[in-house]
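Researcher: Checking consistency across runs. Here is Fibromodulin again:
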Amino acid sequence: DLVLICFIAWISNLNFQWLSHLRGRWRSGGWWAEDMDCPLECDCPSAYPTAMYCHNRNLQHVPYVPSHIKYVYLQRNQITGIQDGVFDNATSLIWVVLFHNQLSSDKIGKNVFSKLKNLDRLYLNHNELTRVPPNLPKSITDLRLGHNKISKISGSFEGMTNLTNLQLHANFIEDVGGAFKGLKSLTMLDMRKNKLKKVPENLPARLQQLYLEFNNIEAVPAGFLSMCPKLQFVRLAHNKLTDKGLPANVFNISTLVELDLSHNKLERIPTVSRNLENLYLQANTIKEFSLGSFCSTVDMKTFSMLKMLRLDANQINAKDIPAEAAYCLRRVAFIDV
Ligand SMILES: *[C@@H]1O[C@H](CO)[C@@H](O)[C@H](O)[C@H]1NC(C)=O
Ligand SMILES: *[C@@H]1O[C@H](CO)[C@@H](O)[C@H](O)[C@H]1NC(C)=O
Ligand SMILES: *[C@@H]1O[C@H](CO)[C@@H](O)[C@H](O)[C@H]1NC(C)=O
C-alpha cells in the first residue's frame, strides 16, 4: 500500500500534460513493457515502430534518437540549439520535424544533419534562424524554412538535385544570387513576405508554382517565364509593379494557368496567353479595359480560356467593357469591376 500511496503522490506532482502522456503509454500496454529504447520524454508507440513523438513537451534539447527511428516529431517545444552528434546514430531518419521552436543559427552545429543520408523532409519553419543550416543532406526533397530571420541563401542548396518543395516565406531575403542553380527537381518555391526587389533570375526549369507576394518587386525580367516552361501558378500580389517594369509579352506564356497581380500599381492590363484561366488584377490603378490583352484578334473562333477575372478596385467600371468582350471572354461568367 505504501508503494501505491507513493505512486499516487508522485503522479499528482506531475502536470496535466505529463499525466495524459503517461496514461497514453499505460493504455498502449504499460510503460515498463514499452520499448526500452525510447527516451522518457517521448512516445514511441508500438503501432508505429519507426516513429518518435516528442512534440508539445516544453523540451529544451533534442532527446537521444535511437538508430531505428525514421520519423521524429519535435515541433512546438523550446529547443534553442542542436549540437553536432545529436543525430549521429540516427542515420535512418527520413523526417525531422522541428517547427515552432527557438532554434538560432549560432547554436546549430555545422554537421548536425550532414550524416542523415536518407533525410527526405526537414521542417525548420517558425524558428529564429538567421542562416540556412550548413551541410544539409542532398537527399532532401521538402525543406521548410519559412518564418525565420534568414537574409542570405546563396550556396545553401548546392547539389540538392531532388529538392522539390522549398519554403522560404516570411524571412529577410533581398537577393537570391545563384541559390537556385542546379535545383533541377524544384517544382514549388515559396518566397512570400521577403525583401525581394526583383523576380529572381535563373529560376529552375521544372518550377510549377512561384509565390512572391508581399515583396518589394518593381520589375519582372524579360522572358523569365519562358525559361520555366512548366510554370502554372505565378503570384505577385502586394508588390510595387508598374507598367514600366513589365516587358511586353512577359506573361503571354501558354503554360500559365493562374496569374495574381493584384495590389500593385499597374495602369494597363498586361497581355496574357489565351490559355490563362485565372487573372487577378484587383486593387491596381487600371484605367482602361483593353480587350487586346486577352485576344489579339476578336472573332467567333478565337477566344480566351479565362474563367476568373477580377478588376475591382481599379479606375474602370462596367460601361468601359466593350460588347466584343463577350466573344473573347466567353468563359468568364462575371467580370468583377
Ligand atoms: C551511438 O551508438 C554507439 C554504439 O551503439 C554508442 O557508443 C554511442 O554512445 C552512441 N552515440 C550517441 C550520441 O548516443
Ligand atoms: C535522388 O533520388 C533518387 C531516386 O530516389 C536517388 O536514387 C538519388 O540518390 C537521390 N539523389 C540524392 C542527391 O540524394
Ligand atoms: C501571345 O503569344 C502568342 C503565341 O506566342 C502570339 O501568337 C500572340 O500574338 C501573343 N499575343 C500578343 C498580344 O502579342
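Researcher: Does this match what you'd expect to see?
Model: One thing to look at in this run: Residues 138-139, 161-162 surround 2-acetamido-2-deoxy-beta-D-glucopyranose (ligand 2) (CB under 6 Å).
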